[in-house]
Amino acid sequence: MMLRDSDPPHRQVEKLRRITDVLIDRIDRLEETRGSAWSMFQAAVALEQEVLARTRQLEQAMADLSQRNRELAVARAAAEEANRSKTRFLRAASHDLVQPLSAARLFLSALTDTPMDEQQKELTERLSGAFESVEQLMHAVLDISRLDSQRIEFHRQPVPLGELFRRLAAEFAPLAEAKGLRLSFAPTDAVVESDPVFLRRIAQNLVSNAIKYTNRGGVVVGVRRRGATGWLSVYDSGVGIPAVDRNRIFDEFQRLGNDNGTPGMGLGLSIVRRACNKLGHPISLSSEAMRGTLFRVGLPLIDGTHQQHPKASDASSHVLRGRVALVVENDHGMRRGYEMILGERLGMVARVTGGTAEALATMGEEPPDIVLADYNLEGDDTGLASILALRDAAGRNIPAVVVTAHRDPEIARRCASMGVPLLEKPVRPAELSEILVRLLS
């Protein structure tokens, strides 16, 4: 729209008004645009301030988290050190804890062979039960300590289940008989691969648990072959385990509400689960109310058969009688206990000594038939050192047994390398007799 000189005045005025309106409109839009940009600028500044504030808060939170992580690391290190200290203490104290208990068991076993009236027999049975309870609790605590240790080592080897069943039958027959229960072990020639010490612990705890929670009927132990796996099965005719309790029974100190005063601390199944997890043996549980419970442990089968050793009760009378046993034991209570069990019960000639030097002097030029040595002797002396010295002096590998309260894998390795059976304290006379028969047969 342009002004022309030729336009009349009213036309020029109208054009000027329109031009003015257009210019005012442009100025208004320009101001609006400038106001929007200013608002955006102000919003950007405010947002930047918010970002800075949140960044400072995040940095503070990260610093707090780092501090908490450092505190947690310190607490975890302290807890791990406390656990290691506990393990070291239990390992160190186990010998001193078990030694008097082992001697007491030997004396009590010798006492049962003497003539007694009914009251004395009852007192002896009650003492045996008390010792059994203490022994089980100590074994449970020591086993849990070992299984919780990160340095635990297993010694996998062929384990004949028939021999294991025979030992369990001898061990638990009195307990089952006292409750009026039938305890049956199905004959088997199956051989599996496992750690023999911990496999026996697993089986012991399962059988013991079955007997404790069964009031009538019985307990049946056997093995079922399924492909390359042998399922060690323990079935009882007890009241069963409710579904809500089937997970918690494997925790420490957990017992069923219907135990009715059944003795025990609720540690057996916890040991079973720990040992099975460490060894890679699957475990399953099935139960039906008022119809019993079945525990199964999967074990890898090994081809081949195993020659069964003669039962100690059948062979000890003629295999051990008159044989010379050289005992190397520095504890006076244990020495006297060995004298009574070996000499008076088994009919052997027991020569007791306190260390390697005394054992060599006692042997002279007539080597004993077998050496029974405690691992921990005075000072740096050990039972293995005594056996090596006696064998060297005799010029032959004298059969020997090492007895220890220390559950140390290094001791087990050294005994295995020397072909020497390892017997854990507290010593059971029946188990000792069985080992002696096996070595001297």
TrEMBL record:
Residues 13-82 form a coiled coil. Keywords: Coiled coil, Kinase, Phosphoprotein, Transferase, Two-component regulatory system. The modification 4-aspartylphosphate is found at D374. The keyword RNA-binding does not apply. Residues 324-440 form the Response regulatory domain. The keyword Phosphoprotein applies. Residues 92-303 form the Histidine kinase domain. It comes from the Bacteria. Its EC number is 2.7.13.3. This is histidine kinase. It comes from Paracoccus methylarcula. The lineage of its organism: Bacteria, Pseudomonadati, Pseudomonadota, Alphaproteobacteria, Rhodobacterales.
